[in-house]
Amino acid sequence: MAAGTGTGTTATGPAGGAGTKATAGIPGTTEPAGTAGPAGVPGTAGMPVTAGPVSGRLPGASGGRPRAGGRLRRTLLAGLVAGAVVVPVSAAASPGAPAPAPAAVAATASPHDRYAANRANLTEAARMAEDAGRTGRASKLRTMEASGTAQFLAFDGRGRGRAVEVFGELETADRVTVLVPGSDTTLDTYQRFRAGAVSLQQRLQAGHPRSAVVAWLGYDTPGTVSATVLTADRAKEAAAELGPFLDRLRPMAGPGARLSLLCHSYGSVVCARTGTGPAVTDMVLFGSPGTGAASVRELPTRARVWAGRGSGDWIGHVPHVRLGGIGFGSDPVDPAFGARPFTAGPAGHSDYLKPGTESLDSLAAIVLGSAGASTAPEIPHA
What we know:
28% of the residues lie in helices and 15% in strands. With 382 residues, it is an alpha/beta fold. The strands form 3 sheets. It has an 8-stranded mixed beta sheet with strand order 3-4-6-5-7-8-9-12. The protein has a two-stranded antiparallel sheet with strand order 1-2. A two-stranded antiparallel ribbon has the order 10-11. Strand 1 and strand 2 (30-32) form a beta hairpin. Helix 2 packs antiparallel against helix 3 and helix 4 (190-207) packs across helix 7. The protein starts with 19 loop residues before the first strand and ends in a 14-residue tail after the last helix.
């Protein structure tokens, strides 16, 4: 359900700062305001689609000028996909709320130094929002402070906002999970994303104390009720942030730490475009509308790829098609896709990380390496 961290990231943050934009993954560096920032992820509900025209002709179409029937089918298909995605969920945002530029943190700063710098920045963002009469945003930011105990590797309060929060002791953890959210994950909807991260961390620590969860709202997620959620454009830009972030995260964790990517909804489109190194052992796609890839062979990772969907998830009714840049592509839970299946029980689209659920138990087992052997064959990656 949400996407950088600390200094050294290359992407620019959301618009709204005075003259500068911060890097998406890790605060600490700034770039000229004219630099274009990455787009596209995290909340919990929206689902990505894959970009790129379909090869070949539509059924019934002949060479030369397209027939009217083909155009009609194209229009109806686009409407069907859009309706399936935009009807179930929507969320509000506070794009006009004032906020300071992100904190500048040295590339060599420890996680705890980053936490302190970003807590101070968060406090200032809440004050500025309050002074500007944006009491709703100010209240949500104060909630994010968690009475001064929050651990943010990155925070940018401008526009829809970005945040990268750690749950657990990152520096000693040997199991680190990065949550990548779907559409409509913003600072205004952050608490639902945070709740899932907290639930997962509590479940992991019950079985393995040296666990940490990173909630990565490191990109501008598309709105559920928007045209952007029907294309992979923001996912591509987000992936360019997520990959380098993972490389920076690994040295911050404990010795020999294994990383897992848990990718929800539109976040699965982001993860499917993210190149990962050997430290990432598992990539999990859940509540996914598709990734744009025909199979796991096409994903830029050597990690084990898992896929699951709850029986109550409305995303299962989204057409798995791709046409003229609109659509989601192959269904990751289809055995032909080649992902390892996991049991998600009756989970609805926003229920996968709720305490006490079968889906949460399955996700924790994957992260901890205790998931049962899958019946799906191992598919070699490209």
